[in-house]
Structure formats: C-alpha cells, structure tokens
Amino acid sequence: MSYESSEEYDVVVIGGGHAGCEAALASSRMGMRTAMFLINMDTLANMPCNPSIGGTSKGHLVKEIDALGGQMGKNADKTFLQSKMLNTSKGPAVYSLRMQSDRKMYHIEMKKTVENAKNLDVYQAEITDIITDGNNKKIIGVKTKIGAIYKTKTVVIATGTYLKGMVIIGEVFYESGPDGVFPAKQLSDSLKEHGIFLRRFKTGTPARINIHNMDLNKMEVQKGDTNISLFSFENEENEVLRDRPQIDCYLTYTNEENTHKIILDNLDRSPIYSGKIKGIGPRYCPSIEDKVVRFRDKLRHQIFIEPLGKDTSEMYIQGMSSSMPEEVQIQMYRSLPGLEKAKLMRPAYAIEYDCIDSTMLNLNLEYKDIEGLFFAGQVNGSSGYEEAAAQGLMAGINAALKVQNKDPLILDRSEAYIGVLIDDLVTKGTNEPYRMMTSRAEYRLHLRQDNADLRLREKGYNIGLVSEEVYNKFLDKKEKIEKEIERIRNLNIYPTTETNSILASLGTNPIDKVYKASELLKRNEVKYENIIEMDGNDVNLPKAVKEEVEIQIKYEGYIKLQKEQIDEFKKLEERKLSQDIIYSDIKGLSLEARQKLDKQKPTSIGQASRISGISPSDISVLLIYLNQNKK
C-alpha cells in the first residue's frame, strides 16, 4: 500500500549525515522548500568514526565550506574539546586546523540548527524508492518504507555507508549501518532499477575503551594549542570560544614483540586476508592488520587515544581500526603501553556498503542520465566527514540553483580544494574510498586555508548563503588587508639603534642603510610583528588581517608564479566542449579516448585532459577539432 503525501518539495535530501545536513541547510537557506529524510533522528550529524573535524587538507575543506556559508566549521567551533594547528613547521600552504569534537554535543548543536532552519522539514523515515517520470529521465518524487510518496523537483542522495550496510567483526557478519543503526536495504534496488551501477566499498573504525581502565602515566600527553584557532571566519574575534578549557589526548605505540605478533598469528581470522571482505578499503587509512602486513619494516605504529566527549568515559583509539574477532582485538589493544587492562566498550568493526561510480556525475554532482538526481558524500566513493560535507554543500546549492533555473555553481581546481575533490571524483573516478590530501591540489600555495574567505566568500554571498552583515564584515577585512599590504610595501625602516637591536636579536646582521619593510618581511626569521615594532606605529589590526598580510608579502614571489600557472590552467578550462559531440566520429582519437570521452562527456578541454587514459596527443586532436568547428 502507498499513499501520496500532501507535502511537495523543491529539494529532498536522503540522509542526515554531514553531507545531508549541509545539502539540506544550503537548499533551505536559498529559499527552497526542502525535506530531509533519515533512518534515525538520533544519528543526525553523527560521528561513527573519530569525533574530530579537520586535519591535513580536510581543514582546508572546512574553511571553504564556511566561506561559502556552510555549517560544519561553526558547529565544530561550538563543540571542540581540543584545537590544534597541524604542519606549522612547514609553509602556510599546508597549515591545517584539526579539532577533537564532543561527539554528542556536535550532534545536538547540528540537530538544533537543522530543526530551526526555515523552509526545512525533517522526517525519520527510510526512503526505499526514487520516482522518475515515464521515461526514467527526470526525478518527480520519493517513496518511504511505509508507502508515503512525496513529490519533489530534485533529490540529493547522501546515504553515507547505509546502503545495504554490512558490519564485519572477524567471522561475524550482520546487516547494519554504522553504530548499530538499521541499514538502508531497499534504496539500492531502486537505484539499480533506474540503471545506476553500484559497487561495494569498505571502511572501518577502531574500538572504544573506558578511560578508567587506562594507565595514562605510560602514555605521552598530547595537548592542544595555547593560542587557539577556530574554523569559522565569523568567529575570528570570538574570545569566548577561544577561552574554553581543552581536554588532553594521549599517544602510545604498537610493538613488534606483542601487538604485531598477535596480528600476524591471527591473520587467517582477519576477514580482509581470508577474502571474506569483498569491498575495497581506503588506501590512506588502513586497518592495523593492513599496516602491520604492508609495513613489516616498521617496529611500531603511533596510536592516539582521544576523548569522545567531556561527559563520557569513552576514548577513541585513533590509528587502530580493525575487523579482527573481538577476542583478538582485546589481546591487540592490551598489548599497548597504558592499555594493559583495557576493556572494549565498543569493538572495532569494518563496514561494507554500496556506492556509485562517480564518473557518472556532472561537475554539479547531478547524475548524467536522470535530471534532478544529485549524489553527495560517501555514496560517491569518498571517505571522511569533511569530504562528505563539502559535496553535500555543493549538491544542495546546485539542486536549489536547478530549481531556480540558474547556472550551476562549479568550483574549479584553481579556486578551491572543494573543486579538486569534486573534479577528482567526477573526472578521474576512484577505485577505493577517496581521501583529500594537500598533494592532490596543484595550486595549494594559492588554496590556503587562511584565504578561503578571500577566494569564496563573494560566491557564497551571490547565491544567498552569506548574509549582508557577514559579507560587509568580510569586505571590511579585505579592505584592511589590501591597505596594510600597500602600506608595508611603501614603508621604509631606518637603521636606528633600536632597529639594529631587533634585527640582531632575529639573527639578521644589521647594515647601516634604509630597509624596505616588504623586503625585510620576506626573510624567514622576520615576522609582521617585528616590522610593526621597528616601525613604531601600531596599526591595531585584527589578528587574521595581520596573518594574511604577512603571508601575502612573505610568499609574494611564489604566489605570483602560481597565479601565472593558474592563468594557463584557465585557458584550457575555458575551451568548452559541447555535450552533443560524438567522440567516436572524431578521427585521430585513440580507441580508449573515444570510449571514455563518449562515456564521461567532459565540459572542457581541461577536464578532458584529466580523464585517465586521455593522452596529450588526444588533447591535440580535440583542439584541432574545436578550431575546425568554430561557429
């Protein structure tokens, strides 16, 4: 039995994880009548793996989400237990903020935000079917497990690891979503009926242990930063959040004599090595048994012990995910210094799930063969909360823009890490859970986390996700940065006794001449505050402005070179390819190029050049074809 609901929507979001929340909030904030469906309301914005936000390259994604008007960074700022800036010994291009979050509070705060959002209805219901028109070419509705049919113009599928989820612990297999929640068992069948190819991926999570069974004295304490950084640009001057007390994390290590021996002795019971797990796991976040086998030369591996919240005794064992039988897990964890008496509150597990071939999506994350159907998050083959949230935001934005009959918002590789993420998934595809890394971004010196608002805030404002008030504050900040950069470029530092003393203290030999402040600032040992001290004119600018001024001046030459590279990249991106081109008819293209170009239908020469198997000679043929067919 089924019945038609009286409720009709512009956008329906299936899933309430990090992708689903960003998608639903984006479309509703853009004025679209939006509905979010999730299997269990208590799992909204859940963190079934590590309760942390950010990290290397992932912090960039969070800052970009915030710059566009998304929610993840704001929610992380409200609920962090510890804040730490990573990679500070390297250049600012790879600085990445990471926060350990209070898992329960993160869920509560995001749930509050979603429930209070205008234009957004939230339902606890499992969607079993997507409904298309008679030609299966256009979305017209969705159907719930109990038979309710909701009409909608667009759908965003953000199902995470729920699609036919299968939890695996040793020899035990059972149907489940993450954290013991019901899986989505029927939607996969509906997708297949609509011609959507599905495959199986796998991810895993470590055990949780009770802090009262740990010997903290045997571990190294890992403290947060003294000068706390926050994710949201709107919180740059929020001292209340910065003053929050932090909770320590801890570091211990596996060892060859016990931990590694236990794993190797029980390798035949590992479903990864026995062949029982069919799904493909993440290369860059392997299980502990995979680490021990693949890196046999390593005598030990780092294991971080991190809190799940300020009001719980549960601790997360970062770096030790596993699908071993529970009794083997107990031996493994107890072999670590400080965990000799550990008790598993939740055992580690692997989870297999259905996902799509992301090369079947357009760059706006819309499925190529069904109008109005968008996909976001782990269902696209990615891994990680941040990657999911970034895709969710873009899918929600583009679903709303489609309803409004406006051009999609597409960020290219030179504009954002989000652009790199989506372009990699859509253009190159992935044969394993995709994880964002700074090395994937060719223009990472330009795509720093500190300038995400300078790159993307205006785009967020133009589509309606950034308020007038927030945008005006951004314009004021931008103006201050520009004026101070100009001032420093025109500033001279004179060789006074005080100036020479400051330079000497920095390890710079004073020379009896007038210095250009901008040239001094380009020296590694000289900081912006040193320039202000030597100048004697305290301009009293916000910290974020000072940091941006220093970075832009100090790395001016490198940034200029990168912008020249970006200009060359843009030339190829601007050479558009019609979706009506029949590549199999173009003489000179290799057989592989014809097949892949006909399948993926790239939008530009630049995108075509990044498809696996497309050679430089194929690109030359395409350029000749475009020149011959100019209108």
Write the layout of secondary structure elements.
Layout: E1 3-14, H1 18-29, E2 34-38, E3 52-54, H2 58-68, H3 72-79, E4 80-86, E5 96-101, H4 103-115, E6 120-124, E7 127-132, E8 139-144, E9 148-157, E10 166-169, E11 172-175, H5 187-193, E12 198-205, E13 208-210, E14 220-222, H6 239-242, E15 249-253, H7 256-265, H8 288-294, E16 302-307, E17 314-318, H9 326-334, E18 344-346, E19 349-356, E20 373-375, H10 385-403, H11 417-428, H12 452-462, H13 468-489, E21 492-493, H14 497-505, E22 515-516, H15 517-521, H16 528-535, H17 543-554, H18 556-573, H19 591-600, H20 605-609, H21 616-628
Parallel strand pairs: 1-2, 1-9, 2-6, 9-20
Antiparallel strand pairs: 3-5, 4-5, 7-8, 8-9, 10-11, 10-19, 12-19, 13-17, 13-18, 14-15, 15-16, 16-17, 21-22
Helix pairs in contact: 1-10, 2-10, 2-12, 3-4, 7-9, 12-13, 13-17
